[in-house]
Amino acid sequence: MPRSPAAAIDAEHEDEPSVIDESLIKVSDPSHNAFWKLRVLWEQDGLLALEKPSHLLVSPDKHRADYPVLTKLLQRDINRGATWNRSRSYQFLELIYSLDFETTGIALFATRQDVFEAIRNCVGSRKMVFTHLALSHGVASELDFSIDLKLAPHPARRWLMRVNRTKGKQTLIRCRVLEQFRSFCLLKCRSETVRHHQTRVCLQSHGMPPVGDSLYGGKLLFLSELKRQYRSKRTSPEKPLIDRPAIHHDTLEFDHPLNETPVKIESPMPKDVAASLKFLRQFDPQTHF
């Protein structure tokens, strides 16, 4: 019988195998019966980059006050001497920038105070380049295009962002079409800013909202919409190919602020986006410029 998350936490204080897989960090939250295996994407010079799954907070959110928070779970593990930290001996951990609850990809942490203070200035001074993959609705008119907007919180719904040309903060994303289908498009979007929902709002304003992004005009993608002879299972409703906004933070580039070494961190495409692309290639013919 599989161990519950609560049992998994207790088991960490039992005898461990002599060889521990350092490429994974395992965290759990028994109060939510939740367990995650987080792949280590980068670990060097006071930095730790993990592959964040969807539907996991990296920092507290007042609109999801009872949800597990990755930063808190990692800090808890450091304080109690969890297995993954025994060889690392981290005593400090701080999140560098936030990611949306549903977004997958690179979550970057500083494991030293001096690195945290130095790299925070990189984020504020636009010395970091963030790249996101986005599976969007619509057809692009150009292979490469830019979206330059000023964004600010919605006055009535503060968890949403909207275009505000007078009070908004400047946001520029540069997009390249990787694959164009009949009704959908796979984009690579680059930016040097970290604004709440920035890629989602910019794509919405361009008429290409991300698939599954109900907050900004996106719709769920179902196989029945693509496959003409699709036969549903009457015993249960059809599940969407992707149940979240189809955004993935796949690349992060910067010079390390202490030694100026170029750093490039990459995260592989998540399974839900890859599966969606598989069916789009099969049933939604590609078009070319």
Description:
It contains 7 helices and 12 strands. With 289 residues, it is of the alpha+beta class. Strands 1, 2, 3, 4, 5, 6, 7, 8, 9, 10, 11 and 12 form a 12-stranded mixed β-sheet that branches. It is globular, with a radius of gyration of 20 Å.
Summary, kept brief:
With 289 residues, the protein is an alpha+beta fold. The chain is built from seven helices and twelve strands.
Quick tags:
alpha+beta; 30% strand
pLDDT < 50 runs, ≥5 residues: 1-16
Number of DSSP helical runs: 7
Beta-strand percentage range? 25-35%
How far is the first residue's CA from the last residue's CA? 54 Å
What's the alpha carbon Rg, rounded to whole Å?
20 Å
Number of strands: 12
Order of helices and strands: HEEEHHEEHEEEEEHHEEH
Give the overall shape, derived from the CA principal axes: globular
pLDDT averaged over residues? 90
The biggest sheet amounts to: 12 strands, mixed
Instruction: State the share of residues found in helices, binned by percent.
Output: 10-25%
The helix/strand class is alpha+beta
Walk me through the topology.
Blueprint: H1 5-11, E1 24-29, E2 34-44, E3 47-52, H2 70-80, H3 83-86, E4 94-95, E5 104-110, H4 113-124, E6 129-137, E7 144-153, E8 161-163, E9 169-180, E10 184-191, H5 198-205, H6 223-226, E11 247-255, E12 262-266, H7 271-283
Parallel strand pairs: 5-11
Antiparallel strand pairs: 1-2, 2-3, 3-5, 4-5, 6-10, 6-11, 7-8, 7-9, 9-10, 11-12
